[in-house]
Amino acid sequence: MSAVGTAARSIVRRRKVQTFVIALVVLFSTLTVVIALALLVAASAPFDRAFAAQLGAHAIVTFDRAQVSGTQLEQTSGRPGTVAAGPFDAVVLEVPEDFLWRTAGPLVVVGRPGPGGPVDRLDLVSGRWATAPGEIVVNYPAGGGRPADLLGVPITATGAPTLTVVGFATSMSGSADAWVAPAQMAALHPTARQMLFRFSAASTDAQVAAGVDRATAGLPPGAITATQSYLTGKRAFAAMADSYLPIITVFGLLGLVVSVVIVGNVVSGAVVSGYRRIGVLKALGFTSRQVIAVYLAMIATPALAGCLLGAVSGALVAPAILKIAFAGIHTGTAVIAVPAWVPVLCALGMLVLVVLAALVPAVRAGRLSAARAITAGSAPRAGRGLRAQRYLAGLPIPRPVSLGLGQLVTRPGRAALTAVVIVLGVATATLSTGLTSTMVAFAGLDHGDGVPVVDVVVGSPGNQHAVPERTDKQIEELLYAVPGADTVTARALRQVRLLGHPQPIYVNFYRGDTSADAEQIVAGRMAAAPDEVVTGPSFLTQHGVAVGDRIILELGGRRVPVTITGELIGSSPEAVDATWALLDRLAPGTPAVDYTVTLTPGADAAAYARSAAAAEPGIMVAARGPGNAATTTIVTFAAVFTVLLGAVAALGVFNTVLLTTRERRRELGMLKAIGMTPRQVVTLTVTSVTALGALSGLLAIPAGIAAHRLIVDHVGVVAFPESMKAVWHAPQLAALAVAGVLIAVLGALAPARAAARLTVGEVLHTE
Amino acid sequence: MTSEEIVVSLDEVRKEFGDTTALGGVSMRIRAGEAVAVTGPSGCGKSTLLNMIAGLDRPTAGTVTVRGEDLGRLTETGLALFRRRHLGMIFQFFNLLDDLPALDNVALAGQLTGASARQSRIRALELLGELGVAARRDSYPAALSGGERQRVAVARALMNRPALLLADEPTGALDSRSGEDVMQMLLDLNHSGQTLLIVTHDPRLAARCGRIVEMTDGRVSRERTPERAA
């Protein structure tokens, strides 16, 4: 082994605790960064990858069959910068009954000869392609499964022959709900023609719009009935993940900053504490470069171990977190996983970061003269903060406390870095507390502030439960009649066409008590009239509409213009809420699919559920549990990052105190020799960082509150009202202020107790 | 100035560090007002013996009694409190706090006992005056000469009026003139009644004490008075 290797190994062996701390800090930091990056990547990359693999359509344009011929549309494919597929005949069928997993309503059917082609290459996930009359392939929205059991199911649409499902395919473009052979289309009476376009530039809405204009130039005006950009689908895909992005980004940035600060602090400290050794090495004949190499090797050894373990841990933990983040999202063929390059990049990046952080103090050390290095290694330079020390010595406080406070001014750089670490730890705790409070308040909307609530789902072939013998009204009467019921709200669900958009939307129709829903309005008012609807922020954004706008809904040939009268806190990006009166206009006689029963305060929800289910076997009744998926996810994220960053912050403090007590061994030994008790040594040592913790806590709380505000203002799928954003109360803030002290004390306690156990004789004798 | 009061009593004190025996069964007594020098070659156990008497380390066997207190029965905190009240220590390398001026270095020992900063500084200033370094009260250790630093260290050791002053090679880091000054100062203190135990390998310094304890290989090889030695 070379002299450099021997020297580096001896330092690593001698400074086991220091080495362990470096490895642990780097491990936690790498783990945090892997999780953050995995979530950031998963929010867009899987869609892009799956979309690219299918040569997805940047624009799906639907034309009025009466106004434009197939020959005219075929000419659009030769336009510069454009690749096209089609024209395909298309029709919107009305399916009167629920089928497969879908609710009754419109079904966009397109005639295609096969799943391939230059654009929108479908993935056939089960069965085969429709080639003969009477066969249909249905779009399967969620990837991963193989719905082979559903093959052979018949679909009966109004005015169309019965079609049998022979396959399931997935389109990342969302070009249709189902496909049939072109020859079948004549029997379905197509009303439209569909063109699928890919453009050379399609990164923005403007580029997609320009591509459509270029491709359709020269066609009769008014021929286009609907245009769907892939960006809408991409936003819908990432809607849930996007809503977490502000949170993930803030936590990820916090993790990176903490990592940089702690690694810098640890490395500088390790180099500074090794100055005496540097002097000895130089005296032995080591060159400056060799000294630098020794220190880089000394840091790189534990850092490499930390990077590797952190990357592996991150790769193991991140999939579970991704699973939570993407639960319930239609992912198509997109694979939500942690790409192998994420942990690799994080490990390499962190290692580079550590080496860079070590380089500056190592170079400084390499340039030191041997004599100066040996002198510098004994203790911090005298003369720093002397006036402050003098002032503190005269204060009427216990001397160990004033001595501890004095240590802050002896190494102001180290104190500042430690303060930054504590600030970030407390800011994270503050942010986490705020998010939890906001999300608990949000979840409370569905749970009536402690009032028991029971969910009732009507049995149907779709949910594989017995169909009720009672009618919709009779079920509602039953639910009122069971002891404990206070109010009953019925909900019907239908898919309807939104004019100007090729994909249907869902409409929730409510009957009965809707007072609880009124609390979810953040702008405008609840829908009251038959021509009014309300919806959430993601629907408004993705469909380019706002409160006050008019949209036209169509179902079964009935068109009803409606006004968006209010914005809900949050709802599906594909759904609006309306009154039962609108259902009577669009699809009269449609029964409720589920009911929400609010019980009287103190009623036994479980007993109610048992009684209702016994009275009507055709319904599924369950008492509603606490929390919801979004709340659980965000609170889980917040908790995971808070624990990680809190642990890293405490480790940062631990390292600082460890360095300081090592440098001050002689002083501590002397203080013990003149009568300082072990408890006083602990007091002195802990005080030095407790004061920092208290100060840092005060600085961190406003930062955490600002970060909380930033996040809750930018969650795409939820528009929180001010009451849910203003979650701060004095006792909570006081507790958070204590968090800084707690991090400081937790980090300082172990090295402080070790300092208290110093054997004075050895310490002073070795001097 | 000696009396019959026994300040220090060691009975068959042994100290082992692994396989190495630092003290191999030392017994000795020090009476109030005595000035005792412990001498011997490097590694003979002088400093270990001093550490045992100061309660800085615990014996493997035997008992150490100082002012009637069996140090082996005291906890770490009890030992610290005992040192604070009854012992003063002087080190070869002074061990002053670099960040405090001379006055506050001395006052620190008083403040540890709970005395106010003002009271402690008054007492510290008196001591610095008695030891001839009052003019350097506001100087930091880095600005003091070796002899001045040791005088400040002696002042700090005397701050709480200790029954026993322990000095480990007090002149070892000083030039000959400063060393002579410090030694004379310690002997003056002894003449005024201060019990003194000095560890030194300098036979000339040892010869100026009332009793010399010579150690070899962890044992007391000989005890004598300077007159006999002479």
Automatic annotation (TrEMBL), chain A:
UniProt entry tagged with the keyword Acyltransferase: no
Database matches in Pfam families: FtsX
Membrane topology label: Multi-pass membrane protein
TM stretches of this protein: 20-43, 244-272, 293-321, 341-363, 415-435, 634-660, 681-706, 726-749
Compartmental location: Cell membrane
ABC3 transporter permease C-terminal domain: residues covered: 250-369, 640-758
Keywords attached to this entry: Cell membrane, Membrane, Transmembrane, Transmembrane helix
InterPro entries: ABC3_permease_C, Macrolide_Exporter_MacB
Keyword Membrane tagged: yes
Main location, first listed in the record: membrane
Family that this chain belongs to: Belongs to the ABC-4 integral membrane protein family.
Protein name per UniProt: ABC3 transporter permease C-terminal domain-containing protein
Organismal lineage: Bacteria, Bacillati, Actinomycetota, Actinomycetes, Micromonosporales
UniProtKB/TrEMBL annotation, chain B:
Keywords of the record: ATP-binding, Nucleotide-binding, Transport
Pfam families: ABC_tran (PF00005)
Matches recorded under InterPro entries: AAA+_ATPase (IPR003593), ABC_transporter-like_ATP-bd (IPR003439), ABC_transporter-like_CS (IPR017871), ABC_transpr_LolD-like (IPR015854), MacB-like_ATP-bd (IPR017911), P-loop_NTPase (IPR027417)
Alphabetized CDD domains for the sequence: ABC_MJ0796_LolCDE_FtsE
Keyword Ribonucleoprotein carried by entry: no
Presence of keyword Transport: yes
Highest rank taxon of the organism: Bacteria
Chain ranges of the ABC transporter domain: 8-230
Record-given protein name: ABC transporter domain-containing protein
